[in-house]
Amino acid sequence: APSPALQGRHVLVTAGGTREPLDPVRFLGNRSSGRQGTALAAAVAARGAQVTLVHAHVEQAVLDTLPGTVRVLEAGTAVDMERVVRQEARDADVVVMAAAVADMRPASVSATKLKKSLPQPEDGKPAGLTTVELVENPDILAGLVSDPPRPGQLLVGFAAETGDSHQDALAHGTAKARRKGAHLLAVNVVGESLGFGDVPNAVVVLDHQGHEVTRARGTKAQVAEALVDLVVQCLPAGGR
Ligand code: C5P
């Protein structure tokens, strides 16, 4: 059912895992399925918001679950995603960063396929796939916090954490919530068959000080509904 607080609001959601190219056929990627972000985009659209989904790698079958009212844009790498998100966020009341954005990318992208072994070049340096030099990607969410494209917008992040115990993983999430400074950070403790892919999800939502706001558990659609409820509560009254 529509939520009055979301009527006419613009919500930007990111989903999926970025793929950072090494050469024309290889990339560094991650295990994000994009299902949670896609479920969020669908849930918030069903409540009456105008939704834009910016996605990195997400299977077509997952994207096909979106209602036709969601505007869908692709951004395959972290650098692409930063550009598209900063552009689109200028018009967004809420930004939910559910994408798994690679922290690092290969320092250079080979124009031709890298070879396992090449004749030793004269400088003696290996020319094949023995080492990959990485450089840091922009932190898109941190950039939205420090330099908001639209004043007053609500910023929501996700963090998949692992640890020796649930408590340990949650402690990483608490530190990240403080460091990133988003209004809300949904921490997903990976493991126990929770988290990635077509499985139930469980999140603990923290505020920017790392304090627990709420917990949600269930299918990705159920977790999405709980997060949309929270977004509705956190939106400043008044609309656009
Ligand atoms: O990868 P990490 O756990 O730091 O991700 C936490 C949040 O930060 C997520 O919402 C993710 O979308 C965002 N992020 C980002 N830019 C990055 C890395 C992560 O916006 N380079």
UniProtKB/TrEMBL annotation:
Cofactor annotation remark: Binds 1 FMN per subunit.
Segments for region (Phosphopantothenate--cysteine ligase): 11-240
EC code: 4.1.1.36, 6.3.2.5
Catalyzed reactions per annotation: (R)-4'-phosphopantothenate + L-cysteine + CTP = N-[(R)-4-phosphopantothenoyl]-L-cysteine + CMP + diphosphate + H(+); N-[(R)-4-phosphopantothenoyl]-L-cysteine + H(+) = (R)-4'-phosphopantetheine + CO2
Binding site for CTP: D103, K113, P138, D139, I140, L141, F158, K176, K180
Cofactor(s) this protein cannot do without: Mg(2+); FMN
Domain DNA/pantothenate metabolism flavoprotein C-terminal: 6-233
Keyword Flavoprotein attributed: yes
Annotated keywords: Decarboxylase, Flavoprotein, FMN, Ligase, Lyase, Magnesium, Metal-binding, Multifunctional enzyme
Highest taxon in the source lineage: Bacteria
Pathway annotation: Cofactor biosynthesis; coenzyme A biosynthesis; CoA from (R)-pantothenate: step 3/5; Cofactor biosynthesis; coenzyme A biosynthesis; CoA from (R)-pantothenate: step 2/5
Protein task: Catalyzes two sequential steps in the biosynthesis of coenzyme A. In the first step cysteine is conjugated to 4'-phosphopantothenate to form 4-phosphopantothenoylcysteine. In the second step the latter compound is decarboxylated to form 4'-phosphopantotheine.
Name of this chain's protein: Coenzyme A biosynthesis bifunctional protein CoaBC
Annotated source species: Actinomyces lilanjuaniae
Whole sequence portion shown: 222 to 461 of 461
